Batch of 3 targets.
Target 1
Amino acid sequence: MVNMLLGVHCKKSDKVDLRTPLWNYISHNYSPSQAHEAAEDLTTVQAQRDEVISLTGSYAAQLDCERKYFRSLSMMESRFPISKDDHHVSMSFTWYDAFRPTKRSEHYSIHFEKACVLFNIGAVLTQQGLGCNRETETGVKEAAKNFREAAGVFGYMRDTAALRVEHPRPVDISPECAGMLERLCLAQSQECSYEKFCTDRKDAKTLAKLAKQVNIFYGEVLRSLGMPPLNAHFDRSWTAHVSVKAMLYDAEAWIQQGVCHGKETEANIQIACLREAQRLLAATRKEIKQVGKDLADHLKRLEDWAAKDYAAAEKDNNSVYLQRIPQSVDPIAGLSMAKGIIPDWTDATSEGMFASVIPDSSAKALSKYTSAVDTLIREQLDSLTHASDEARFKLRSWELPDCLQALDAGSSAALPEVLRKELEDLEDHGGVRHLTDLAAQIRDLRKVAQEELDTVTADLDKEAKEDGDLRDKFTNRWTRPSSAALTSHLREKVAGYEANLKAAGESDRRLEARLTEHSRTFSGLSIQSAAAQLPRLQAPMVVTGDLEPAVVVADLRKGLESISRLSSERAQLEEGLKQEKSKDNILPKLMACSGSPDSLFDQELKKYDPLKAKVAENVGRQHSLLNDIQKNQAAYRQAFGYDQWKQACDAAAGGIRGKLGLYIEVRDNMSEGLRFYMSLQEAIQALQQQAGDYILTRKLESEELMDAMRRATSDEARRQSEAAARQRAQASFADMGLGGGRPPQATGASQSYPPPYLGGSPAPSPGGTPSYSAMAQGSNYPPGPGAPRPNGPQAPAFPTQQTISQHYPGYGGPPGQSPSPYSAPPPAQGSAPAYPPWAAPPPQGQAPASGGTPHGSFALSGRSRSQMYGEIHF
């Protein structure tokens, strides 16, 4: 049979318009756009409160809604100051007392609202506990759990929201009432546990302790109800119920304790325990009328149980044990099975409400926390970086791990660092294969340059032959300048480039001969081959130190491996610090924090403590390892004679340096030759373009001249035909007797037979038919300055020597009168050109002008560039 338990009624409230005041506050203190962004959250909060005060739905649904609303209030608390003060949100909350429903309280405080919501959460949990079927094992467990959760909620309310409610503070949400309700829920949870243990038939000693703890909890509740302000607020039935429960479970504890002593054949002590139980039951009988029937039944059951056990124990003691009855017995110690469950749903950091509303105080606090985190991370990263730099510097100064690698056959550690880098660079560029490729490129460029020069020469010869054939055909009528006079400077350039190619070819053959001669030497210029030519570091035949060389080497290798592992750990620690910082978003917690943020900062910064400890441990371990490595490397150098071996390696590396120097000399000269041919090729291509333009112009000129001659021949034939017609007309006039032998003269501007005019043909001169020479002198070339121009349309003029010089300066004048288009500007003062600029050769018979462009050179085995490739004139 189970006893009646007490449940707490929920507080009731009036409706409140949350949305409008909060909307106005956001619009006024932030911006209308932020108010629009928060509109949905405002609607959600309003709906949550309306549902909370409706007190409808299942217990689970009510709890879920009330918990969500409480978290929403926590998000609002740090964003919206609710009070009667100016510039605050003026919004009042009205709630009615849970124990005296007619008492009404109104506060302009969000803490008051939170306290009332917490009270209702605890109340719903008590009602949910009452609804469990405690006659089943599952039901009694669920009931005990609900009461423990309710105790945790009331305890949380007592320590947080209840303390921040302003006076006059309602009694039902005062800290005193919250504490009393917490103890009441613990007492009822302990009572449920006792019922379960009785069902499980646990031993009497355990049951006595459990029952005593129920008495202790109810006793604490009774004392709270007897003190202000609760003594004047709660109904007498509460006090009577708690008082009866306390005495009943105290008496039941003594009965169970008596059972325990009876089983141990301690009848006298059992009788003393039962007398105490009967005394408590007699006192309970006086107050039983103020409580319900179930407690009266519980009292009757305990009285019958105590009387029965007392009679049996007294009979046994009088007839068997004859023991003296003690006046008092040791008190019973309680065994608590009930502990309040701290709410785990109060954290509002997971809520995303009002994200756009961030007060200045929160922004400043966040900036302060971010600065503290940045400082912490920077200090740890600086420690890790300093440790890495220290290890790298010390190992390099000790020549580690190179001095250990010198023990391995074919190791490059014996090579001086500068020589090793030069050999690495040589291998990266291909070694002797690189020289072979350079030689092949030079040959290809020389071949292409020669082919291009041959093409220019062939084109000029073809043009000169065509001009000669036309000159022979038309004799003195072919009046344009001859090709030989116009192409002399082009042919001089071709001759100069061919001379340069010939000189460069000689230098190429000498370089290729040297490459062939030293190819085998160059093939051996590798790190592996060079290392094989140096002496090898070996262990001494006789040990002179305290430690064996093999032990020293093993210790050094082990130390280096440990340093490498520590370096990898530092990389992981750096990444861990950065990741921890990247995901450290304290703003939601900061917005949900209702007190000073400093305690929150201290709590949040503690999550970096494990990483800080690992950083300190890593740095400390490395410092110790470096000290051990320093001692071991000193012993290693002494045991193996490392310094003497290093000197021998430096001496042996001299021959390798000589071979490398020869390779570099050949490579640089080939590179210079490659640049020479590339520059020469550019100049030849420009010459090809110039020759092509010249040939095209000559072809157009030839066609125009031939057209002019054809027109002149046609005009001459026409004039002769007209003259014959006139003669025939005169003869006809004479035969007709007109006399005079002359045709009648025309009057005015008219003429019986005007001379025909062909577009583009010159008008006939009054003196008769012009000669070809006159046509060429007067029509094909423009008249000189001051010469009269003929009237009427003019035939297109053929380009003269002057126009050719203007449009094609490369070949427009005789050599020596115009600068070469390839003459490079003089180099800056104090610097020598990497490659000699192209320069036109001086006219024949004329010495080059002083101060001309210097000719460059590149060195090969002590020769100047002019000695290898000769002076190259363009």
Note: The chain has 26 helices and three strands.
Target 2
Amino acid sequence: MKSLVLCQCYTSLPPPMYRRINLRMNFQTFNPFFFSSSTTSSSRRTLSSISGILLFSPPPLVFITFNLNIQMMFCINMLQRFNSNQIPYPFQSTKEGIRSVLIQEEEHKKKQKEMTITPAIKISNQKLIIKDQVILSGVPDNVISTSAATSGPVEGIFIGAEFTESNSRHVISLGTLRDIKFVSCFRFKLWWMSQKMGNQGKEIPLETQFLLTESDDGSIYTVFLPLIENSFRSCLQGNSMDELELCIESGDIQTKASSFTSSLFISTGSDPFDTITNAIRTVKLHLNTFRQRHEKKLPQIVDYFGWCTWDAFYQDVTQQGVEDGLASLSSGGTPPKFVIIDDGWQSVEMDPQKRDDDRDQVYRLTGIKENKKFQNQEDPTIGIKSIVNVSKEKYGLKYVYVWHALTGYWGGVRPGVEGMEQYGSVMSFPAVSPGVILNEPGWKKDVLAVQGLGLVDPKSVYKFYNELHQYLASAGIDGVKVDVQCILETLGAGLGGRVELTRQYHQALDASVARNFADNGIIACMSHNTDALYCSKQTAVVRASDDFYPRDPVSHTIHIASVAYNSVFLGEFMQPDWDMFHSFHPAAEYHASARAISGGPVYVSDAPGKHNFEILKKIVLPDGSILRAKLPGRPTKDCLFEDPARDGVSLLKIWNINKYTGVLGVYNCQGAAWSTVERKNVSHPTGTNALTGVIRGEDVHLISDIAADPNWNGDVVIYRHSDGETVTLPHKAATPISLKVLEHEIFTVSPVKVFGSGFKFAPLGLIKMYNAGGAIQDVTYLVENELGIVDMAVKGCGLFGVYSSVKPKQCTIGSVHVEFSYDSSCGLVTMSLGRMPEEGRSVHVVRVELV
């Protein structure tokens, strides 16, 4: 029987850099010049897998050095067309050839020893040093580090610690942090994160899950990512001595450990956004328990306008209420294409026996089907399918989602209830971690902490999800909003801890969603703990912040700041959803404009009959689609370490990109923030004067990537949404912007293309919409006999604008010449796209001719 030999080799072109290749050869037909004298026939027969090095030297000599129990060398006289080179007979004497290879190997090893590679990150002399800058001093001896790199300069390290005793919770100092600018994302509630900036260790909040630092000169960014390790989850916190502490806990007193090797990952780079993305990628490869946003399928609801029933009806939602809301929105020319039927459709009941000491009763799930409010009166067996049919057939919706909690309902699944016995639900009482309790003291008396939750047996939770989702899918439901997710971290006692319980539930949820909802129809909500983020492979949309509170005037500036900064971290895992809002509200435009540039889904929770269609038409096209930006909206680079909610001087700038343009949203978010002292949102004086900042083309972080010219010089045209002001900004130039509290401004930013005989051109888009540039799907530039031609594919309808350095000769839409206006003072060209593209076409073809 012929045996096969697998050669794993390293090749060099040129030496000494190697790359791995695989050679698969038939051993009996492989005819080497020689075996070394120490090679026996027995050892030849036992060959199955060999590793070697292919070495080249001029003239090209090829050797494969094998490391086995007995070292041997093969010399191949010819390897046909390997790396496009013909390999000649390499030598006359076998001994000379062997000597030549050994000399080359020894010289190469010597050079490697002489090379000094300075790690980008290292712990030395009890200091954490990032590219020669000390970040932490006084690092304890029991803190251990492991390189994340396999070769070359070390750009990341894993941090762990050794303890003298096994325990379910450890807190260890990582050293002192002083005079280092940072931004953190921390959980101020069990469910939600917010941002905090500072430059001293004591300012780092409890439950910090993401920390980014900046060097003094702004050239080096370092990200700290507390991780999950086996059954433990970590977070960061500061103490009064400016020490950065690592808290490692399992959430189960029976789940203990004393040794940790990778509870924290630290990585560095010169670009903050790339540094974060690369760090998350390294963690993904290390853990193999989650996927990044760009690897997941986005549900198509993100490209359409929607409506959620929550703020319109809360738990009193009915089938008739859903119909009323859909009819009301459709009547104004902004038809929703998806609906989220929020809490209020399920079959739930209170416990049979009321407790005397309970002010509020917890409701628990008693069945997977809808309650009587959503049963067709004429034929109750139709169930929730009735409103699904009405939504899709009468109102033209594409997608219907419903809400449910990760545990079924707020109070879980009632144990022993008829028809639900197979899920093995048992009463469990939340045990909230010390960090959360300190940030959110109300948990000590929370109704769930007192009355408990009916927790489905982790071994049966896939059966529960699958039967629930299968029923919904059979009724035409397209997806689910899965809420209350962080509650799992409090229920791990006796079940292997918080991470293990979360892992089991999310694996089951992922599998059920993949099986039952073809469009990956799921939105994660109340899910900001890293237990969930690092255990989810399927969910592609996540709520980005605490709720939109229409009746709380303090909340609106807090909301915009939180969604932007949380998206810096959350956006690496999923597409952040900046939540519903009201179109008829004092802060409606403030919220609406932010949703339009968020890159995520856009939906309102208006009560029927209470809409501002003028605002909605700046987001929604007549066919119910939206002009969605490509990425998660995030603060601009120069805002990352400023505090636009607390410092009284900074404006928040949010950037995003489309295919051919960028967009900037500028917001005054001063006046209110979560207080680390009072443990609640508090307002603070801001004065009545406007704050002034500046915007630049480079504020759109990836602006050079979308420029149509590889030799782009950095010039941009900026279109101001509120008044139509159009300005050309040279590279690095800035223009001022002044805003009072709760004021905002949107700018379309378009790179200037220079072509032909000096024509300058920049597409802007549907300039009456917040994200104008999202309408432009394609742009091509041509020059014919000194005539400059720009062809554009444009989605939607409305007033269309471009910048041109000269007045166009003519403009056409399709083959039809159209009237246009030209403002020579700023170069703005406008024309009307009066209606949506003709049936069967997704875009208008717009041509502008320049001479």
Note: The CA atoms of residues 287 and 588 lie 42 Å apart.
Target 3
Amino acid sequence: MPDRPGRRSAHPALAGGVPEVPQAVARAASRRSRRARHDRRAAGADRGLPRRLRADLRRGHRPAGGGRGDPHAARRGTGEDHRRPGGALPGCRRPRRRPHRRARGALPRDRPGRHPGLPRRGPRRRRRPARSRGPGVRRHHRRARPEPVAGRRPPQQPRHRLQGGGVTATANAAETAIDPITFEVIRHRLLAITDEQGATLAAISGSTHVVEASDYNVGLYLPDGSVAAMGRTILSHASSMAAITRSVIRDCAGSPGINPGDMFIVNDPWKGTVHAQDVGLIAPIFFDGELLAWTGAMCHMVDVGGMTPGSFCIDATDSYQEGLQMPPTKLVDGGEVRTDVWNLILGHTRMAPTVNLDLRALVGANNTAVRAMTALAGKYGAATVRTVMANLIGLSERRLRNRLALLPDARLHSRAFLDNDGGLAQSSENATYEVDLVLTKRGDTLRFDFSGSSPQAKGYINCAYSGMMAGISAALLPTLAFDAPWNEGLFQPVEVECPEGLICNAARPAAVSGGALEAGWLVEMTALECLSKLAACSDELLREAQAGPAGGPDKFVLTGAGENGARQTYVIMDCLATGGAAYAHRDGAWTQGQHNIERQKISNVEAVEMDAPLLYLWRGLVADSGGAGRHRGGMSMGAVYTVHGGRDVTALNSAHGWEVPNSTGIFGGYPGAQNTRTVVHGSDVKARLAAGTVPAVEELSGERPVMRGRQGLYHLGDDDVLATVPQAGGGWGDPLDRPAASVQADLDFGAVTPDAAVRLYGVVLAADGRVDAAATAARRESLRAGRRAQPADLPLPEQPRGERIRIHPMGDGLEVVESGGRRWIACVCGCVMSPAGEPWRPRAARQTSRDVHAFSHATRLDDGLELRAYSCPSCGRLQATDVVRRGAPHPDDIRLLTGPEGQEEEE
């Protein structure tokens, strides 16, 4: 066939007939002319790679001299004891000349019996560098490249490698150099091992906490207990299991000793767990007789004893009333389960069959990790694996420090309130407690100071030091370390100050069984608020900031006779289906779930009805639950239950966020709705169901007792009905800035009621119920004028007249500008509110109210609290809404540590 454009002519090599392997040789022969050029370039064909990286990629890093000192040289076929043709001569550091057609550093693969008719391939031709193609042509090589997301791409040049030119071990691992490809392979294998651990745990456990709520986590740790890799389920266990591992090392190294095949169980809150229901099992991993690493698994167990089913001991006044609390105890000795300890644990729980499966699941998860890590060390060597683990920690630390260095130095303040301290405290002694955080960011460090928090409470709402660290972890990791490996390195830039004896660092024997969902939860909320406001001072990180997510669920535990007549405890997880917080660029997600649980689920209705003596009357999204704002908070899911089967049950409900909204708004957004709960005793629900109708709660007859936040134990009979709605996410930005079309969409979907649309979003509804855009614009301007008329404590500073240069944002309503050689805090409308480094709220128009419903979906507010709204006195934009103690000074949530002239200020 004659040649034509776009078609290759027959290659001369095919003119002599068909070779032994026709198709393969034909493909190879078509490239033979290029192979000749490759041969001529063989001596320098791989110079497109830097020398060190080239050596690492082709044969694995080895010391000079043919691999002397490399423990894996024989296995790789390199080094003194296993030389290949072309390797170093004995006693000579310089390798002799390599054979023809072999690229420098490439290992030979001599297979003389395979396809003898195929030509041997040389190294690939190096790609020519791109050249300029004249003006007006895009030069792709000049585009700015963002930092790659962790795990997406291995380092490609020596300057990209860890530890300054090569991945080298820290003091915790041997000084073994690791090539970047091996580093990435082992890093991802470590993450895969934690996934396998989690899958094993969930497959064995039958607990609702594990299977549905994902209230468990797993991890791998260096020999000193530092977190090297962790699962992505519940974040609060990240620091907790590291603390448990260090407790085991400290308490058990001498007696009973730490040996291969051992496993140690811990659920003592002063030894690392958040509360006694979180049970951790830690196992050492030995390789060739030396400690390679640790692995651990932890899950929430449905009951560990104590005075209340479910072990949320709402009436407890000390930890001795809260069930079994084990310091580090050897549960598995040399691979053999200690049945005496196992039976001791089961003897303290009301739910022995479920706890028995949980214990087996923890053992299985650890066995999975031990096998996988041993195989990994066998393949790459123990020193290599430890080096990668240590360097992962260094990578995360550097990434977080680099991010912090780009943020302005600031002191941030957040305060959250706990309504009361438990069942016995619901009396004249009842108090409102504070979790008070001052977060100071200087350079590349963060200092969390909870010293202003309330003294520890009488009731069960306290948390120990481990619970406080769990809350910090759950806030820090997804906010500022979203693209870094989650491990110990993220805690290196962190300092924590909190004297023992406070509500978030309670001293033994304080009651702490509720701490994970009480004081520890508000540690997370305050830390998240401060970190979000810090991130909002950067254009690059503004999208990572968020309003307050759901401020805490309403726990719902049932105890009663099961289908077989035996007494059972049921934990209903519907309270976890809470709305998410709003962001600068979007609304909060509906039923996002708890902020600190990465992979959360809830049970299907049918699964709950099959397991527990409950019948659902309704479950769905709740209108007016997410906080109002330019972007509103996500909606939560509510549920209505009735008891069925003629069985009476004992219920426990307990929640904070009852008399104060904990899902705070941000930068002018309103808080989300509070926890709500309604009980109807002796209702006519069965008669209505028999008549073929499913009634709404409002339609039922019967007695409606006044419910309290921490209700404690109460009785539910066959004709009783319980309705619950958990808190939802807070809003972002001024609700009057929400587009009228978006409010109409909310009305159409049912996310917002007409009352809330008018009251909170300032819209005007026409006779047909649709939003009147023109009338809405006029009404909103009138509402803004009313805000501007509110008083301020201090006058505005004299407005600078020179050119203004924007320095950085403070959310999306305020910004720091420079003018006349000074820095100012200004509204985006242009009004200068205060000098930089000084609080702006005293100069803002302020409205104070005890009517929390006027500013949110909340309906109740503690008698000692009030809500304040701060607006720009020039444009009327709402800049902040704060819940504070009555008569308290103005909040100072963001204090820049940069003076008006731009100099660093002392704290």
Note: The chain has a mean pLDDT of 82.
